[in-house]
Amino acid sequence: MKITVDGNMACAKMAYKMSELCSIYPITPSSPMAEDCDMWATCGEKNIFGDKVKIIEMQSEGGVAGSLHGALSSGVMATTFTSSQGLLLMIPDMYKMAGELLPHTIHVASRALSTHALSIFGDQTDVMAARSTGYAMLCSSSVQEAQDMALISHICSLKSSVPFLHFFDGFRTSHEIQTIDSISDDEIKKMLPMSAIKEFRKLSLSSTHPHQQGTAQNPDIYFQNRESASEFYSKTIDIVKDSLKEFERICGRHYSLFDYYGDSDAKYVIIIMGSGARTVKETIEYLKTRGYDKFGVVSVHLYRPFSSVDLSKAIPESVEKICVLDRTKDCGADGEPLYKDVLTALFKMNRQNISVISGRYGIGGKEFTPAMVKAILDNLKSGEKKCFTIGITDDINHTSLSFDRDFYIKHDAFSCKFYGLGSDGTVSANKNSIKLIGTHTDMNVQGYFEYDSKKSGSVTVSHLRFGKGEIDSPYLITKANFIACHNISFIGKYDMECDLLDGGTFLINFPYDEDKLVDIMPQKTLATLIKKNIKVYVIDAGKIASECNLGGKINVIMQACFFKLAKILPYN
Question: What is the pTM of this model?
Fold first, then answer.
C-alpha cells in the first residue's frame, strides 16, 4: 500500500512495531519519532506482538541509555531515537550494551555536533563519533529506506545479538515527505526470528534462572574476551545479507550491503553514504544522456561491520579512480572515516591499482546539488584535487571545488516553492498539501521545508514536487513551475521570480489594490516576469484571515489559492 510520510514517521512505525518499550528524550531532528510513538501508544495502537508499547520519557539522553540497558537486561525488546549530542551522551552505555550483546536498535536522525557553534542541521558527525562502540551501523538514503532499513536493523540485531545503530540524514531525510510503499504486519511477521526472540528472553536477568553478567575482569582474560566478540561481527555481515534477500522475497525491494548504480564498465566511481547517494545517482543518469559515460556510484548501507569483500564486489573491475565523499570532518586526521575504510578495503582486496581521492560535503546541512556532483565527476576525471571540499568557498585552505551554479536537472515533476514567514502556517499548510496530493492522486510526491533555527519570524521556503514518475531528488528546487509569496515584504528582497520557469505561475499575498502591484514591484522584477511570460495572481489573504478570525494564519487561504491554480485536485 502507498503512503505519504516523512522519514521520521517511516522509521518510527517500524521501531514501534518491533518494540515493547520506547525510552525517549526529545532532540532535533529526531524528536518526531518519539512523538509519533508516544501518540500511537496513547491511541492504543498495538505492536507486532499485539501489545501496546510502553513509553518512558527520561530527563536526559543519559537516562534514556540507562533505562534502555536495564530493559534489555530484563529481556524487554526496547528502542530509542536520538541525534547529535544526545547520541554522545549515550556512548558510555552503548559500549556496555554492545559488550553484553544485547540486541536492539537505536535510530538516529544524524546531525552536526556542537563544536565552535551549535547547528541543528544534518551531517554524519554524530554517528561517526559512535563508530567504535561496537554497534553495527546501517545507513538509509531515502524515506523508503528509512522504513525498510529500520525493520531490517531490528531483525538483524535479534539474529546476531549485536546491537544496531540505524541512521539517516537529519532534516534532509528525517523531515522529507515522500510517497513510499508501506510494510504490512503480515510482512513483518514473516520476517520475525521467533527463535532469536526466545533466546534473547531466556538470557534475561531473572531470579528464576540466574546467570553471571557484568563482571569485573583482570588482564588474564579481558583481552581474550574482547577478541572473542569478533566472531559475532563476522556473522553479522552474512546475517544482514541473508535478511536483505529475505526482505526482497517478501516485500519486493532489493538492497545490498553496497548498492552500485552506473555503467558496468565504469572507470570513475563515487562512494558515498546517505541521501547524497540519490543526488549522485540522479546526476549520473542525467549526464549519461549528454555524453558523460563510464561513471558509477556506490551507496553504502552496512557501514559497521565493514565488509571489504562486498565493497570490492560492488566496484566494477574496470574502475581506475574512486572519489570517497564524507559528510563529516575528522579534525587532525589525514582523512575522513569512510575514505580510510575504503582505502583499507581496497588494500585488503589487492586493488591498489585504483587511485582514490576524497571530499567533504554537506556539513551542517549544507546543500548538495547535481551541479556539485558534476564538479566532483569532472575533478575525478581530471585528477586536479585529491582532497577537496564542495559547497563552500574555502579562501583560507583553498580546498574547495568551484561549480556551475546555473547547472540544474530538468524534471518531469511539477515543482513549487512557497515563501512564508515562520509562524504564519505556511509550512504546516504545505505539509498538508503534499500529503493530500500523495493520498488522493496516483502521483508520487516529495516535500521538503527550508527554515533556520530561529523558525518563528524567520523566512521559510517550502519545496514541493509531484508527478507520475519516480521523484528522487534530495535537494532544494532552483527552477519552479509555481512560486507563492506569502509576505509582500519579500518582493525585491528575494529574487523569487528568477527561479520561475518560463510560463510559470506567481501567486502573491498582496494587501493593496491590484492596480498598485506595478508601482510596488521593482523594475527588475517586472522585467523578469514579462520576459518569462509569468502569470501573476494576487489575493489579500490577510484581510480574509482577519474577517474569518484567523489572526495571522493565512495558510489555509493561500493553500486554497494554490489548489485553485495548480488544478491538481478538484477545487471544491
Answer: 0.96
